[in-house]
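Collaborator request, handled under Task 6.
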Amino acid sequence: MRRRFVKGTITKTTGGNYIMYSNSNIITNAGGFIRETADGEIIYGGPEDAPPKTLFEKMQVEGDFFDMSGNYLGSTKNSKKMIFITGRDITRIPYTHGTLPKEFYDKDVSFTGKGNIVNAEAAKKYGTVITSLCPITRFNVAEKIYNYYYQEAGYSLNELKYKTITDATNDPSNTGYAVTKLGGVSPNSEYLKKEEAEIKIIYGHIGVNFDTGYDIMSVCGHEYFHLQELIRLKKKIYDGYQEDRAYRYQVLVDKNWEHVSIGFKKRMLENILNNVADTSDNAFYKKARGNEKQYKNHKEWEQGNAITL
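Structure tokens returned to the collaborator:
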């Protein structure tokens, strides 16, 4: 429920039609009189049909919420792992867990965000989807959001030298989205001591190539598989099939693949075609591609509103 109290007068002016729809009742109650005027007729009955219910459903915001520093705040009850960033209050101070209005939460049990349930209606007011944000805003939240989903996927940051997912943008070994290194084993890992590990993902990909938390967890699964092979096989991993094995794990074993966004899946499929050795493995490619209907209305990524919070 949303209530608004105004001591003065509210005036609304529109150049076109003014239309109201409700899934329930519309009630008008006046302490004085109700006046209706029209240049044409005043007609009762026979209203226009409301838009299909699916339009209302599309208005639902279901996802995970983070503040402008990338700290996890909580999720809506039926989160689809869409990523939302809260903005600033009326004094331009960024919202944090402690400063968000009470209406933001249906359940607030933790300052770490764990177990917190975000109110789906309030979410529309306070959250901006990651794909609509400008590059600098997305970059600033990337590290902590990557860390959150890495841990939600079941992996420990304590296994990594820097206890965080680092940026792969300028790494000479990176040829795609991410790179995993093990000291004494991987190329360009001289800065790592023997057995020290690092997982690097390009920060700028969030909101561009990674639309949802499922996308990020899928990448984390791929890179963690590389890490386990590096630990187990050492330099024997570099047999020309290391990406083949990692993509097969990502598609056939990791639980996030069936939930990733269509845009992410299409881009990953291009990588799979270039890196999987057995191009005749129809069963694998069928699982990788999934239901053909999901691609019917998909549009390639375009720059959103480039909002700066």
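The cover message to the collaborator said: "Residues 1-7 have pLDDT under 50 and may be disordered. The beta strands are 63-66, 72-76, 82-86, 105-107, 117-118, 127-129, 178-182, 197-201. Please let us know whether this matches your experimental observations."
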